[in-house]
């Protein structure tokens, strides 16, 4: 089959809120086409016709794909009609699902712009969880372990802090503690329900590379005790021994993204027996 000539693709993302939903859907689709040259134009908080019209005119000039999550009826329908008239590909991401849920339940949608991001209790709980993660990062205050929804343990470079922040955005209060053979484990850790503790680990070779890169980033020699393989193996052995004593879930993060590790944690918080996920 003859391959078509490569061309740039333009995508105009329109939302009445921050536009994360449409952007993430588009990114998930584009991940299947890594060789494409793509231009994204993001227009959040479009809530009035006077703001929408120039965006659609630009989409027409670019011959762009239009992706929107507009829920205010006149704006949503105007966008769909404009794209149909101008022969522009248009994807109203929420429309079909909203319609089907309404049909199945008999309930009408709110059609309120930015409903997902309103300043409600969930929003403020998320902010509180983020502040908690910052306050109790790297074991700054052992008292935080007793108040946390989740405690992450791990040797250096096992993604404790990024995971804490990611999970905080899911309204989970996370405290984390770096562990090493020379440092005693705070007494509070032994008072935490093992179901709320996750032990993070990594492959020795991966840790070796990460730690060397970190030293180089600091302008130091990559060959230090911090990146020594014997030292790394000793740390991992100490960590596994601690996790076994605590009876907590253990997750190897070496081949996992932050999102994947977080998903495993969120589905496993209630696990009581020690479970190792290689």
From TrEMBL:
<dbReference type="Pfam" id="PF03618">
    <property type="entry name" value="Kinase-PPPase"/>
</dbReference>
<feature type="binding site">
    <location>
        <begin position="154"/>
        <end position="161"/>
    </location>
    <ligand>
        <name>ADP</name>
    </ligand>
</feature>
<comment type="function">
    <text>Bifunctional serine/threonine kinase and phosphorylase involved in the regulation of the pyruvate, phosphate dikinase (PPDK) by catalyzing its phosphorylation/dephosphorylation.</text>
</comment>
<keyword id="KW-0808">Transferase</keyword>
<protein>
    <recommendedName>
        <fullName>Putative pyruvate, phosphate dikinase regulatory protein</fullName>
        <ecNumber>2.7.11.32</ecNumber>
        <ecNumber>2.7.4.27</ecNumber>
    </recommendedName>
</protein>
<keyword id="KW-0723">Serine/threonine-protein kinase</keyword>
<dbReference type="GO" id="GO:0016776">
    <property type="term" value="F:phosphotransferase activity, phosphate group as acceptor"/>
</dbReference>
<keyword id="KW-0418">Kinase</keyword>
<dbReference type="InterPro" id="IPR027417">
    <property type="entry name" value="P-loop_NTPase"/>
</dbReference>
<dbReference type="GO" id="GO:0005524">
    <property type="term" value="F:ATP binding"/>
</dbReference>
<dbReference type="GO" id="GO:0043531">
    <property type="term" value="F:ADP binding"/>
</dbReference>
<keyword id="KW-0547">Nucleotide-binding</keyword>
<dbReference type="InterPro" id="IPR005177">
    <property type="entry name" value="Kinase-pyrophosphorylase"/>
</dbReference>
<comment type="similarity">
    <text>Belongs to the pyruvate, phosphate/water dikinase regulatory protein family. PDRP subfamily.</text>
</comment>
<dbReference type="InterPro" id="IPR026565">
    <property type="entry name" value="PPDK_reg"/>
</dbReference>
<dbReference type="GO" id="GO:0004674">
    <property type="term" value="F:protein serine/threonine kinase activity"/>
</dbReference>
């Amino acid at each position: 089959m003859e391959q078509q000539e490569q061309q740039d693709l333009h995508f105009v993302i329109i939302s009445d809120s921050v536009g994360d939903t449409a952007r993430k859907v588009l990114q998930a689709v584009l991940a299947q086409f890594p060789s494409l040259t793509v231009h994204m134009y993001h227009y959040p908080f479009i809530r009035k016709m006077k703001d929408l019209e120039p965006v659609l005119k630009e989409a027409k000039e670019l011959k762009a794909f239009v992706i929107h999550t507009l829920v205010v009826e006149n704006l949503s329908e105007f966008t769909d009609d404009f794209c149909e008239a101008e022969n522009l590909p248009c994807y109203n991401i929420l429309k079909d699902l909203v319609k089907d849920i309404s049909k199945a339940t008999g309930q009408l949608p709110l059609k309120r712009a930015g409903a997902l991001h309103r300043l409600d209790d969930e929003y403020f709980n998320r902010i509180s969880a983020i502040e908690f993660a910052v306050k109790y990062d790297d074991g700054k205050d052992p008292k935080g372990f007793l108040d946390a929804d989740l405690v992450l343990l791990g040797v250096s470079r096992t993604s404790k802090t990024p995971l804490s922040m990611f999970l905080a955005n899911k309204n989970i209060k996370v405290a984390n503690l770096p562990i090493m053979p020379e440092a005693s484990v705070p007494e509070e850790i032994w008072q935490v329900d093992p179901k709320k503790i996750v032990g993070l680990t990594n492959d020795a070779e991966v840790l070796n590379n990460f730690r060397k890169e970190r030293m180089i980033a600091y302008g130091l020699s990559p060959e230090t005790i911090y990146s020594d393989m014997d030292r790394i193996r000793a740390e991992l052995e100490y960590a596994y021994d601690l996790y076994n004593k605590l009876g907590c879930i253990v997750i190897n993060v070496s081949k996992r993204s932050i999102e994947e590790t977080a998903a495993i944690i969120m589905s496993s918080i209630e696990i009581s027996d020690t479970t190792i996920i290689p």
